[in-house]
Amino acid sequence: MAKDFTEKDLLKGLARNDKRSVEILYKENYNMVQSLVINNNGTADDARDVFQEAMIVLYENAKSDHFELNCLIKTYLYSVARRLWLKKLSHAKKYVGELKDDQEIIVPVEEEIEAHALHDNQFALMEKALSGLGEPCKSLLEAYYMRKKSMTDIAEKFGYTNADNAKNQKYKCLMRLKKIFFSEYKNELL
Predict the structure, then answer these.
(1) CB contact at 8 A, 84 and 54
(2) pLDDT tens digits, residue range 92-139?
(3) What are the DSSP calls for 25-77, one per residue?
(4) In this structure, are residues 143 and 157 in contact, taking their beta carbons and an 8 Å threshold?
(5) 182 within 8 A of 190, measured Cβ to Cβ
(6) Within 10 Å of residue 103's Cβ, how many Cβ atoms?
(7) What residues contact 143, with CB distance under 8 A and at least 6 apart?
(8) Which residues have a Cβ under 8 Å from the Cβ of 76 and sit 6 or more positions away?
(9) Which of 157, 130, 75 is nearest to 108 (CA)?
(10) Fold matches, 7-108 and 113-189
C-alpha cells in the first residue's frame, strides 16, 4: 500500500472519488483479479470488466454511512470479483467446478452483489417510468428532486400561479410516476 494511505484513508478517498485513492486501489488489486479471471477461462477484457464492477460495488458501499469493512480491501475486492466472475461463468455455461483461488480467505458478499443488481434493475425501471411520464411532469419532478429547486422557483418556471399549485401538480405527477413504475415492476416480475 502507498506509504501515506491507510485502508481507512483509501475507503474515504474512494467515497469522495479521490483520483489518487482510486489509482492506488487499482495498482494494488488489479493484477490479483486479472489472475483470477484469466486462470479461470477468462480474458484480459473480462478481467477489466469484473474489476470495474467490483470497484463499483466497493465505491457504493464506501459512500454508505453503514458500511463497515471487517477485512482488508484486497480481500473484499477479491471476494466480490470472484462472485461476479462465477456468476458470469454460470450465465455463459462455462462454469465447471471450483475456481482456482490464489487467496485463502473469501468474504461472503453474495447478498451485497444481489442487492446491487436489484438496485440497478430498479433504477433502470425508474428511468423507463420517467421517460414514459411525459412533459411537463418529467421536467417538474426532475427540477424538484434532482435539481433541488424550491416550489416557488418551480411555480415561476412552469407558469403556475403560486407554490401551492406547483406542489399540487408535483403530487399528481408523482402519483402518475408511481403508477407507471409499479406497472413496469409488476411486468418485470411476471
Answers:
(1) yes
(2) 765 555 555 555 555 555 666 666 666 677 777 788 888 888 888 888
(3) HHHHHHHHHHHHHHTTT--HHHHHHHHHHHHHHHHHHHHSTT----S-HHHHH
(4) yes
(5) no
(6) 14
(7) 149, 153, 154, 157, 158
(8) 58, 69, 107, 109
(9) 75
(10) no
Domain 7-108 falls under CATH 1.10.1740: yes
Q: Supply the pTM of this predicted model.
A: 0.51
Q: Which residue type sits at 126?
A: M
CA gap 46, 62 in Å, rounded: 24
Q: How far is CA 79 from the centre of its chain?
A: 17
Per residue in 22-65, pLDDT (tens digit) is 899 989 988 998 888 888 888 888 889 998 998 888 888 888 87
On whether the CB atoms of residues 37 and 92 are closer than 8 A, the answer is: no
Q: 15 is written with which cell numbers?
A: 467515497
113-189 fold: Arc Repressor Mutant, subunit A (1.10.10)
Q: Hey, where are the domains in the chain?
A: 7-108, 113-189
Phi, psi of 58 (to 5 degrees): -65, -45
Q: How far apart are the first and last CA of the chain?
A: 48
